[in-house]
Request: fold
Amino acid sequence: MTNLFVDFQNQVEVIKVRCADGEITEAERDATLRKMQLKDEWGDIWMLSPTGEWFRQASGSKEWVRDHPIAIIDPSTLPPVSEMNLPQIARAVHDCARCPLAQQGRSRAVPGEGNPKADIMLIGEGPGFHEDKQGRPFVGASGKFLNELLNEAGYKRQDVFITNVIKCRPPNNRDPEPEELEACKPYLDRQIELINPKVIVTLGRFSMYRFFPGASITKIHGQPQRMGNRLVVPMFHPAAALHQVRWRPLIIEDFRRLPQFVAEMTIVRKSEKSNSSDPEQMSLF
Ligand code: SF4
Reply:
């Protein structure tokens, strides 16, 4: 394998592990990485698990989250967004300058994180202050509440994939502009395509508008709509539910129905798969 490298900057030393043109094998590289915890330029700590998955502990956090270390990808090797894998999207988002938000004070872009094979994908609006600092979606008070909501539904945060419609923080948390949403859209489109979740939960106005243009959350929250081979469920944004106490029981109730939505789509997908592989069924069409 060529062009794979790790170049994490540690305050003490720069660790370089190269796997190119026979320098070391991929197995040797992974064995080396498993023995060390690597610190990146933001002070986040990275670890490669025995199963080959990367985990990140953001600076100032005690939580380990599954993530993609962008430093192991050489940016010059990136394909078009429509052909990227999840780590490549994280790398591209990190360096992205497709819209003005790249120049408007972002500390860190926030590509998203979580289970790459998640049944449930949660899509928020965009990074806020804490997200921008940590490079992670839904941290701070709304993230804590989101974790509680997931627990209510029987899930852990690492079971789902969490991202936003816009990957960089708009200054002072202003609404994203239409051209910014449009510029960022290919990343989310590709993430949805790759993860192929059974259920998408929209959290917030701009996420909801992507699937339900012009809708009102108070009218449609918690009502799943079939779109292709998945259900899309609009829900209140956790931050809004934290501020508007009357919405709190509604969002809790909506989250509790998530396992039911996943179960429904599991049955639908199974039956569609068996129909498409059943020659007798196929001959009916
Ligand atoms: S918001 Fe999206 S399109 Fe704009 S710079 Fe960030 S990653 Fe790129």
